[in-house]
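Deviation from plan, reported transparently: 3,4-dihydroxyphenylalanine complex.
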Amino acid sequence: MKSLIAKYIEEISATRIEDFKDRAAEVEQFRIKFLGRKGVMTELFEQFKTLPNDQKKDMGVALNQLKSAAMAKVEEFKNFVEQAEESSDRHDLTLPADLAPRGSRHVLSVVMNEIIDIFSRIGFTIEESVEIEDDWHLFSALNFPHDHPARDMQDTFFVEKEEGKTEVALRTHTSSVQVRVMETHKPPIRIIAPGRVFRNEAISARAHCIFHQVEALYVDRKVAFADLKQTLLYFAKEMFGEQTQIRLRPSYFPFTEPSAEMDISCNICGGKGCNICKGTGWLEILGCGMVDPNVLDACGIDSKEFTGFALGMGVERMAMLKYQVRDLRLYFENDLRFLHQFDNII
Ligand code: DAH
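Because the crystal trials were delayed, the predicted structure below was used instead.
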């Protein structure tokens, strides 16, 4: 009888639910075999009764072990079957997995990074600076006359404007970073300054009080307008495609002389004229020029020895032209229907 019990214990521990085909039914058969009314346990207890008293103690222990092993196994199998049923109730395991929702970069970050990349490839390094700026770095060092309209409350968010105190404002352009860099670095200087700027404008489809600019500055001996033009052409082709053409129109900025505005051939109609370029075939892209000698001198760089060029562009405008965004407000409203349209751009 002892060896029979040992054989059953071995059989129980070797039985694996994975080998069952019809699991629920086979678990029940297994239970009946060992624990049923006419099962192994009942039969063994019958035999047990007939044993001489001196064998009962040992055999009783062995029988109890067998019973516990059978009960534990049945319990384990039942849990397994139950769980499998539960999970197959809720899930169709043959369905393809749901992809976890992925975040994506904001279109402005993508365009900003693209501009940074294009300039990095020709040796420009990134400079960042403060968004709350004083009058000197924002206007005076950049050759803005004292009565220039950009100093007016209409355009600028002043943080402090007290009699006799230096004026402090949210920066209205990233050109202020030019001044900060030139004051602290000796030429050759070849930097771009990406960042946020602020203007006191009524918010509309075409204007916003917060937007982004990228400024570029190159100062060295013998920097000429031809260097500026070549850099602009390179940038336009990298940004808008190899077929892109540029044109420069004379303009005015206090901190550059001469100054120009750059247009690119319309990337929508290829220059034929459409409603994006208002029939002209050209799109206005950025402002630029040769750094005014007054600016170099104000920043401690000898304008007799060094020359430079600068340019500045609006990132929102670049993104508008590249992806045909018609309303500036969309950039800041966090509407997922808008943002998801750019999921696949890097
Ligand atoms: N700071 C100008 C603006 O905010 C843009 C600009 C124009 C920057 C000409 C420049 C430049 O560096 O040379 O509109």
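The two ends are 75 Å apart (CA to CA). We consider this an acceptable substitute for the interim report.
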